[in-house]
Amino acid sequence: MSKATITHIARALNVTPSTVSRALAGNPRVSEQTRLLVQAKAEELGYEPNVMASSLRKGVSNTVGMIVPRINRQFFGNVISGVEAILNPAGYNLLISQSHERVADEVKSVNTLLSHRVAGVLISHSIETTNFSHLQKVLDKGLVLVQFDRVAASLQGAQITNDCFNGAFLATKHLIKNGYKRIGHLGGTLLASVYLDRLKGYQAALNEAGLATGDELVFQDVITREAGFDAMQRVLAAGCDALYCAGDYAALGVIEYCRQQGIAIPGDFGVVGTANESFAPLIAPSLSTLEQNAFDMGNKVAEAFLDRVNGAIFSSHHTSIPMRLIVRDSSLRMQSKLIIET
User: Distance (Å, rounded) from C-alpha 173 to C-alpha 334?
Assistant: First the structure.
């Protein structure tokens, strides 16, 4: 008799394989009643968390490849933790690679993962990536592909993203509520959907309030600390009194420039970032920012992988995770501190 798998347990209890995996891992998202039912059924069926035999039959390993732009970003670190919390108890290991925001490194990483016969690839694209033929190879081999954060809509497979449009809308609307009138935007390349959606959300909030939305207020490819600092001369020349930044590092550069020039934040100038990096509550002034719920995103990436590798596609093709606005000092002219809006 073959060994019981997570799928067998899921079918016996009429739940998803990802629910079984979370229950076996003791994930708090699963109720105590469900966890006990899963444990009892696993013991009854003789389940052991070892996918090696089935993996060998499929011609792949029990390793899952994961490619991120930069592992030193808190967002991606938390996504990785969220993935591991689900996949490790299910018997899978992660092989993590960085693209360093270079398409050549991304292509090389995909080829390396395929040579290691991974069970699937989880990826957030580099900022340079516009051709996705290297990922089509993953699908052509019958392997699982899950895209997250930065995704290509043209590729088949699960896509897990933040609701960047509504997040940017919230951030910009908050600046408007605090009395800022000429609000600029520091964003990334519009070839990446996350940055395009943030730009559209920013513009929608300004349009709703009847404020200016001209091209002179939008500064592209400004997502690093240095770029944020360097952009401020142009920002001030455009008459901006506030900025919504597509990344916290750009916002950090803005705050450093204002500190050097004696520009008071938030009195003279308002700033909201994106990502809730670890430094955001620690700098002076503390940074208002959008929380991306990265650990939850990682959970959903892993769940999408398990659903597909077990042949039961319960999750939708595209999952959108809400962003939360965390209000701190950098934008606080009129509202109460630490407001969290969703």
Answer: 13
The pLDDT of residue 1 is above 50 = no
Q: Contact at 8 Å (CB) between 312 and 17?
A: yes
SS3 breakdown of the chain: % helix, strand, coil, rounded to 5? 45, 15, 40
Average pLDDT of the chain is: 90
- Residue 342 to residues 74, 86, 172, 233, Cα–Cα distance (Å): 21, 26, 13, 33
Q: Positive or negative CA dihedral for 105, 146, 342, 199?
A: positive
34: which residues sit within 8 A by CB, 6+ positions away?
15, 19, 23
Query: What is the C-alpha separation between 52 and 285, in angstroms, rounded?
Result: 52
The amino acid at 213: T
> Is the pTM higher than 0.85?
no
Cβ atoms of 186 and 195 closer than 8 Å: no
- In 3D space, the residue among 325, 274, 321, 282 whose CA is nearest the CA of residue 298 turns out to be 321
Q: Two tokens at 158? A: 């699960």
3-class state of residue 62 by DSSP: coil
